[in-house]
Amino acid sequence: MKDPAARRTSSPLLIFGEWYYLSRLQGSASGFARRSHRSAGPAPPRIRRGARERAGPTATTRGEAMGAKVGVIGLGAMGSPVVGHLLAAEVDVVVLDVDRAAVAAAVANGARDASDPADLAARSEVVAVFVPTDEDVCEVCLGPDGVLGGARAGSVVLLCSSVRPETCERVAAAAPPGVHVLDTALTGGVRGAEAGEVNLLVGGDAAVLERIRPVLEPWTSAVHHLGPLGAGQVGKTANNLIHWAQICAITEALELARRAGVSVPVLRRALMDGPTDSRTLRELDRMRLTWHAKDLANTAAMAERVDLGIPVAETARDVMRGITVADVARLLAGDPLHLLSAR
């Protein structure tokens, strides 16, 4: 007579049940591995906020521990929040801006004031430049009292503005021996800066980037090294083209649906649950729609440099000239995108 346990084990239903359980377990494990691989990313070029938060307070104060002093030039919508996060992490910060009220606010929070870019650079190990245009970057870095005039050997200049790769090369070529230049383009917008969750696209010496990572942590969620100097700005230009093209496509699609009789607010919520969901779709009502002319002009210049036709960028350039914040607000409320197209 067979052992009852053996009979139970040999039951086809139980054999199927064991196979199904083990296959599901294996599938879950492999799925987790795939998700973990996607979320972790390549370790060397990227920092994730989650890992920093789990590490505790010491991770956010490593800038102070290594004795770094950070100079920030430009206390606008991006630079000012960055200063706040650095100060909160107890990093010693020196600031400069033509807006004296912005400087006074930063000083009241613990920053120190500089008299000019050279003075700021002389008192800093890392200098972050947040000014609007290529011309502003050149003036701040290359002028008579510019950053490079005061920067000491071993210091690092971060070009955080959205500028052309050629501008980064020009600044780096003028840097004194021992002064390093990285282009560190920011994505994530004002809300990312305010939350300390900037996505940083970096070009330049990877070893230099590795050395200054601690002072990037308080204000970034991820740091990506894309290649040599200028690569960060190439990445930012690609990011900007996607961003403005998305806005054009989303507003056009919603206006099309509105004219066809579908509620825009209802459709927008539905699209957020589908494959077309994006941060742009979700945050369209909070976007200021600034800098599209500059961003898409940079795209055109880069495309000419590499001999590429850019019909999508050219369309976006034309379309964005006719879209305002008020237009988007009206559309998202269910009314016509353009008043003249009321229907």
Described by the principal axes of the CA atoms, the overall outline is: globular
Q: Numbering strands along the chain, what is their spatial order in the largest sheet?
A: 3-2-1-4-5-6-7-8
Would you tell me the overall average pLDDT? 85
Radius of gyration: 25 Å
Count of DSSP E strands?
Answer: 8
Structural class: alpha/beta
Total helices: the number is: 19
Question: In what range is the share of β-strand residues?
Answer: 5-15%
Q: List the secondary-structure elements in sequence, H or E.
A: HHHHHEHEHEHEHHEHEHEHEHHHHHH
Unreliably modeled segments: 1-66
Helix content: 55-70%
**Largest sheet entry:** 8 strands, mixed
Distance between the termini: 85 Å
Features:
8-stranded mixed beta sheet; 343 residues; single chain; alpha/beta; 19 helices
3D architecture notes:
With 343 residues, this protein is an alpha/beta fold. The chain contains 19 helices and 8 strands. The protein has helices spanning 4-10, 12-40, 49-55, 57-60, 62-65, 79-88, 100-108, 117-122, 134-142, 147-150, 165-174, 189-195, 206-216, 231-259, 264-271, 279-283, 292-306, 311-320, 325-332, and strands spanning 69-73, 92-96, 112-113, 126-129, 156-159, 180-187, 198-203, 220-227. The chain has an 8-stranded mixed sheet with strand order 3-2-1-4-5-6-7-8, with helices on both faces. Strand 2 (92-96), helix 7 and strand 3 form a beta-alpha-beta unit. The longest helix is centred in the first third of the chain and has 29 residues, at 12-40.
Short description:
This protein is an alpha/beta fold. It is built from 19 helices and 8 strands.
